[in-house]
Amino acid sequence: MDQESTSDKVVAEWDFGAYSVTSFDAVKENGALDRFNVLKCPDWVNVLATLPSGHFVLVRQFRYSLGRETLELPGGIVGCGVTPLQAAQEELLEETGFVGGEWFPLGSYLANAGLQNNFVHSFFCRNPSQQLGVEPEEGATVQFLLPKEVWQALHGGELCQAFALASVFMALEQGLITILR
Question: Which of 14, 100, 167, 178 could link 48 by a cystine bridge, Cβ 3.0 to 4.6 Å?
């Protein structure tokens, strides 16, 4: 499908700091004019980290969009001039206080192609160590789960972000982790 460029048909743009929204008109294949909105976001990263003990390093934090706490993989925004790996390493340190270890890219995928323009870059970190004197960022509580507990959290809806599911299954498929049910 060959779509016409929409850059000259922008109707409105709104900047909200961490993301922006662009509204534009596009001609569909049937010739009809339709208005689309794109949530323009920087790329994101997340980290599936495991310790020598076999525990996974996760974060519990309050999400205002849901009005409740969620259990998540450490992660965040890829800043300007920073590679996804550098951003992943920074997020693991900021959210959990862990550094180092062996790093493996799990893959990159679109966050939500129907609405957004950004990618999520997932990484696996084996055997990071806790950096002394570093506290997790405010509002984040580090949690350590055994593989069986991660599986239960995935299936029980506690670890429910699509990015976490994707990371766990990519790590399983690549043989980086084993989860016994």
Answer: 167
Per-residue exposure over 84-101, b if at least 16 CB sit within 10 Å of its own CB, e if not: beebbbbbbbebbbbeeb
pLDDT tens, residue by residue, 125-151? 999 999 988 888 888 899 999 999 999
Query: Does residue 155 surpass a pLDDT of 60?
Result: yes
Specify the long-range contacts of residues 163-169, CB closer than 8 Å, at least 24 apart.
163/44, 163/46, 163/73, 163/75, 163/111, 163/120, 163/122, 164/46, 164/48, 164/72, 164/73, 166/107, 166/109, 166/120, 166/122, 167/46, 167/48, 167/73, 167/106, 167/122, 167/124, 168/48
Distance linking the first and last C-alpha atoms of the chain: 44
Higher pLDDT, 133 or 94: 94
Q: What is the pTM of this model?
A: 0.87
